[in-house]
Amino acid sequence: MKVAFFSSKSYDEEYFNKINEKYGFKLQFFETRLDSHTVKLTKGFDAVCVFVNDKVDAKTLKGLSRRNIKLLTLRCAGFNNVDLEAAEKHGITVLRVPAYSPEAVAEHALALILTLNRKTHKAYNRVREGNFSLERLTGFNVSGKTIGVIGTGAIGRAFIQLLKGFKTKIKAYDPYPNKQLQNEGVEYVSLEELLTESDIVSLHCPLSPETHRMINAQTLKHVKQGAMLINTSRGKLIDTEAVIEALREKRLGSLGIDVYAEEEKLFFKDLSEMIIDDDTISRLIALPNVLITAHQAFLTREALEQIAETTLQNISGFEKGEINRKNQVGTENLG
Ligand code: NAD
Fold first, then answer.
1. Is the CB of residue 77 below 6 angstroms from any atom belonging to ligand 1?
2. What are phi and psi of 260, to 5 degrees?
3. Is the pLDDT of residue 335 over 70?
4. How confident is the model at residue 334 (pLDDT cuts 50, 70, 90)?
């Protein structure tokens, strides 16, 4: 099998080449994003491997089909960037890595909370400049607070496990409540109640037509005064303009994000010598109570190994006609 990788970075090459030693596929890594223009690069390949910001829309899928590509593998869990109806129409199998290391993302969500709260990022810079003042570094005890978890799948559950050490009260919102979590004391409530009661709200649900901008001007009205909002899931779960407004009005106390609605133009690139042509992210960066990381929650050694292993297993299964149905996504996943 000849596989074309898009949006690839040095760490993708390193981990995929290492794990591929036992599979022996021919892997070629393209730094460029897959879209309807770059699809021509897939000529002569059997399969294509993409990441979160590749644009696998109907036009791209038509291009893949024209080049006889029958397999699209996602080296990630989310699949909102793929037009699944078009994939089905062209007979292209879509496989993903549903749960590579939920702990990696959950631990990053916790890192955002603790950094934002105790302002260690600011303290680090202060001390380096010889400023040992503690003024404006006051945080709060996470212990005893109410944490709202939206989406209690693999990552939401891992996040809840981490919080156990903090003796917090957990409220959850998910159309499919988890019995075991309920037995452990997690209380499932409506989205409105979760927002009203929680000191920290963390998003762990997938992006779908139903969850698109679930945090908006209307739902933000319910947020507890001064609450912290954390999003390590997908940028479009929140209406960024409405969130900026809530931060300005001090209704929302702080924001920690690893994902951004318009991240395709920015994230995974070094733009340090460029003028950022996105006023919304510029405003977010300028706010003192906002912490942004550029979609790095998945980036641990364990997760990279697991992603490479599962993706290559997916390709191998497809080649042998033994598709792993648990890893397959189709229109039935559209919610
Ligand atoms: P999962 O499928 O295991 O769990 C998702 C949960 O969300 C399920 O329990 C589902 O019932 C729930 N859900 C669905 N619709 C909902 C709604 N309307 N409201 C509330 N909950 C809803 O997925 P996961 O592995 O936990 O991953 C969650 C998301 O995290 C992924 O979809 C992806 O977008 C994101 N993610 C981000 C990174 C990163 O690096 N930042 C890495 C991996 C995954």
1. yes
2. -145, 140
3. no
4. confident
Return the residue matching tokens 């631990």. 107
Q: Do residues 318 and 93 make contact, with C-beta atoms less than 8 angstroms apart? A: yes
DSSP state of 275: -
Q: Determine the residue of 150, 215, 233, 238 to mutate for testing ligand 1's pocket, defined as the one with the most ligand atoms within 8 A of the Cβ atom.
A: 233
What strands, in cross-sheet order, belong to the sheet with 47-50? 26-29, 2-5, 47-50, 71-74, 93-95
Tell me the per-residue pLDDT of 122-151, one tens digit each, with 9 for 90 and over.
999 999 999 999 999 999 999 999 999 999
**CA-CA distance, 326 to 246, in Å (whole number)?**
40
Two tokens at 44? 């002569």
Give this prediction's pTM.
Answer: 0.93
Substitution site in 203, 205, 311, 334 for ligand 1 pocket (most atoms within 8 Å of beta carbon): 205
234 carries an active-site annotation: yes
Task: Quote the DSSP letter at residue 33.
Answer: P
Greatest alpha-carbon span in the chain: 64
User: Is-contact 252 195, C-beta < 8 A?
Assistant: no
| Residue ranges of domains in the chain | 2-100+300-334, 102-292
Return the SS3 of 292.
strand
Nearest alpha-carbon partner for 311 in 49, 117, 91 = 49
Contacting residues for 121 by C-beta, under 8 A, at least 6 apart? 115, 291
| CATH superfamily of this structure's domain 102-292 | NAD(P)-binding Rossmann-like Domain (3.40.50.720)
Q: State the Cα–Cα distance between residues 150 and 193, nearest whole angstrom.
A: 12
Q: CA-CA distance, 260 to 302, in Å (whole number)?
A: 24
Per-residue model confidence as pLDDT tens digits over 265-295: 999 999 999 999 999 999 999 999 999 999 9
Cα gap 55→34, rounded to integer Å: 6
Q: Say yes or no: do domains 2-100+300-334 and 102-292 share a fold.
A: yes
Please work out whether the CB of residue 53 comes within 6 Å of at least one atom of ligand 1: no
Looking at domain 2-100+300-334, what is its CATH homologous superfamily?
Answer: NAD(P)-binding Rossmann-like Domain (3.40.50.720)
